[in-house]
Design goal:
Chain lengths: 628, 102, 490
Amino acid sequence: MVFGSWLCLLAPLAGFLAILLLGTRITRRQAGALSTFAVFAGFAGAVIAFVDAWGRDAHDRVEVTTAWTWLQAGDFQAGLTLLVDPLSLVMMLVVTGIGGLIVLYSNGYMAGSDEERRYFAYMSFFVFAMLMLVMGGNLLLLLVGWGLVGLASYLLIGFDHHRPAAVAAAKKAFVVNTIGDAAMALALFLAIAKIGSLDYGTVFSAAEDGVLSDTVVTLLALGLLAGAVAKSAQIPLHTWLPDAMEGPTPVSALIHAATMVTAGVYLICRTHPIFEAAPDIQHLAALLGLATLLVAGLVALVQWDIKRVIAYSTMSQIGYMFLGAGIGAYGFAMFHLVTHAFFKALLFLAAGLVIHHLDGEQDIRKMGGLRRFMPYTHATFLVGSLALVGIPIFAGFWSKDAILASALAYGGSLGWVLYVGGLIGTLLTGLYTFRLYFRVFHGEPAGKAREAAAHHGEGARSMLVPVGVLAVGSTVVGLLAIPGVWEPFETWLEPAVEPLVHPSTGEEWLTSLVAVVLGVLGILLARRAFTAGRELVPDGAVRDTLEHKLWFDELYDAVVSRPAQLVALLLRDRVEAPVVHGGLDEVAEGTLRGAAITGSAQTGLLRTYALAFTVAVAVLTLVFLVTR
Amino acid sequence: MSGPGIPWYLAVAALLFSIGVAGVLLRRSPLIVLLSLEIMLNAANLAFVGFSRLFGEMDGQVFALAVMAVAAAEVCVGLGLIVAMARRNLALDVDTLTELRG
Amino acid sequence: MIETPHVDWLALAPTLALLATSGITLLGAVLVPRAGERAFAVVVSLGGYLASAVLAAVVYDRSADASAVVVESMTRDRLGALAAILIALTGLVVTLVAAGDGRRSHVGEFYALLAAATAGMVLFVSAGNLMTMFLALEWFSISLYVLCALDTHRRESLEAGLKYLIVGSFGSGILLFGCALVYGATGELGFQAIQEATGADDPLFVTGMAMILAGLAFKVSAAPFHMWTPDVYEGAPTTVTAYMSAATKVAALVLMLRILVTAFPEQAEIWSVAVAVLAVCSLAIGNLAAIAQRDVKRLLAYSSVSHAGFLLIAIAANNPDGGKALLYYLIPYSAASVGAFAVVAAREREQGRAVTLDSLAGLGWERPFLGVCMWWFMLSLAGFPLTGGFLGKLFVFSAAYEAGWWWLVVIGVLATALSLAYYLNVVRALYMRSGQAPATGAVVATGGSPPRDRLLDTAVGAALVVTVGSFFFVQPLVDLASDAVAALPF
């Protein structure tokens, strides 16, 4: 287990360093191969560790290895400690497994673009940083990983540095994440000051034993939550994620869908004793999750950019995970994290195939009818969409419904609010997912699609294989938790994170029934709207007749779709654009303005320097004289 | 025989110091600026010598002597720089030294 | 027979070794044939710095208890010895960087002045009274004025030299007047004696203290006394900038700590607030201004202002932890700063022009080793984990927290977050594709130094080892620092 986990952690690092140090001595293609190999080697390490742990007794699956303690100041000690337990094993497998597939896919996707070496170096670096985050045995190493993944994300969003939009997006992501990081750093500092340790065990037992005052625990949890919210793009720190889609598509798949953005969920699960000691903050996490899943779902309805729709859907799905973690359904939140990693990576990569096929086109109004030209992509995308909506046997069905069932089981007014909100979210998921699906794959092919079809295949083999694997995964991985029948995933996680709620089998099946009905309803509505939309436009005569037939649709339109659209638009224009967006932009702008002012104070004029000096001395002297 | 009291020495020193500061702040010729810097240092010297006499100890006067040497070294470097600039035909005006800024 | 005071030659040895180095190098400039001038100067300097560092280490070893030596003009203690080691090693690394700078004139003088400045600083950190302090300060300052202006063919260098000279002398003038006032108020020059003689609220005394603090804050380049920093750092030869950014800061901060806690402990309530305010100003101005910079030397200059802020937080804490944090912080800071400027120097020699964020593009691919090092230096300066800079900040914040300065901690953390913006900009620039033709052609065209400079690589490598090593081997370093701080009367 120890060997496996070290292999898992160090292989991507080795890949990163090798690419960096070899520099131009290897070809771009070799850099890609090296990176892929390194990440898969990490996966092999994770599998070795997993198999070892699997063979052990349930309560013997935690392995803490301290490679080196380099600081021992009083009680405070810090060292390179790895914690491998069922929770981190799950994350290790996801990060390296899905990461490996995505890096493999990148070999095809990035072929021919400049600076592939830089890309693969960053990707390996990201995988290493993410592993550091999930495997770190104390909060210090968690923070190390937390900072490093942010760095990798920043570098990769701004990868295409010739496009101002990409650079701006990178900066925005950076600024927003910095807020979270600073809050988290302060929380850790508080932990050092009050507990004298950043060791998981010590901090948790301090939180559980009640030796800390309520304020301290609350602040601690709040700081961690702020970090989690920023990293996972939850309201109110969510605006960076859609913009982050400026990065290359595989980056969106790996960092901004499958792994990094879900780090917040991991954080809450990992540090759950702190949150349980501050239940208000934990409930806040759940409510923020609910708000995000609804807002993101509504906003997704009106987006035209294929990647942005998926990005909003990511936010929305992470909202479910926060909801789950916020009511203590850690196992289900983690399970949704895993299934989501599969189907969201799948959706992004399939979208990447589409974008690649259309030479970089991302506007869904210019797509359509791709089903005919890209059957493979179509099939896989459909699998991803069904999994996302939560249609039975596909992965999302099992995981999302389990979270909602937990909300039902949690009870109380909070539980009901979360339950109902979550169900509405299911309807929205169906609507926006299939709006996207129909727009892209059905209907008449738009001009570009037709042109592209003539001289493109669907993509290189290195791109198609990962997509296929992910599609299979999105289908079967949900079977790891069938309520009341076979629940290996929950039993696996239970020794690491004991959940607070246990929904009964009945509650689970009931929720599933309702959720599936709502999901299917959403799909049907999307289909109707799409079909209608398509036929209304071209022909006036047909349109008239259809109008009469479509009272249904208009009713829906008026009752569901229109208000939803209106609210969505309103939210985008009124809330997101000026308040959240504007607020942050203003912060950034203010900073830049401040920077410019400080710069212009530096006139280069010697005498102003002497003057500033004199004034400062005078002030200093006066203050000293007054306060003496 | 006794001269004026220590406050007078201090007052003159402070006045000299202020004149020096004003010179640095107001004059544009680097030569005059150097001169003003010298005045600042000498103001301190005066204070040192005055206090030294007040306490009847030698250390203040030794300090003043050392400062004179330092001041000479400083002026040497300053004049050397001014000569180097004059050789390169750069204007001898501290306000034109604005190549480096921002 | 004249009675002469007892002289503790061991305490003076680190300074004398460097002074001798300076003299020999200067002689070499005259006596050694031109072809061998550089090699001679470099070898002698390296030997001198090494000897000085070793002697300082001996002093450290043999001065478990602080004692005033040479008529109480000097303090022989571990604090001074540790700082002297750090300064001498900085000189060593800078000499390695400078060895390949392609300087054609003033070769011997450069190394002689560098050694002289180092000698001054080594004496400065052990100063035990106001006179030694002022003389040593002027000693290294005047050497630095000349060093800044040494590239007389470059207008910027002359401008930087003159600016530094005028503003620096202005600062020394204020410092000196402050010394005179403190002397007038107490009748004493020795730090210890001042503390014993102090009348805590004598206006003369307090004014003097404010002026001394201002003069030292100038050397630390704390805002609002920092305005010379970016101009001088940009204009001075890059090796000199590297040296100043590390060595001057070490010297000035260590002495500031020493004088404040030995001479002015009674007024701690007043000066600790003032130092805290200076720290906040430095953090705010340094970080904000750095964001807007394109010139890398200027960017690093503002970064050094912001680091002055972090370091002043440690002084403001006014407790042993603060002193320990200060000394520890200076180690990775000096290494990362010298290293970063060394990388800039390498780029400058390669391209023959000032290094901006744009011209830094592609360095990471053309010179993988320098690229990796630079990226660690930036991360360390930003306080990223896995580098000494992270622990330095952590210690500083803990010390401030201990002293009850929790708002300083909050500001410090925010400043750290803000500083990431420009440090990461540098990292990003390193791995961009350069806009122009491959640099291999440019090297020939601009006629710079040979493409690979082994001595510089060694220097950068050493800086990297310290930067990263100070994170992993933090325990022994912290022990050294706390032993050194034990000499101070907290």
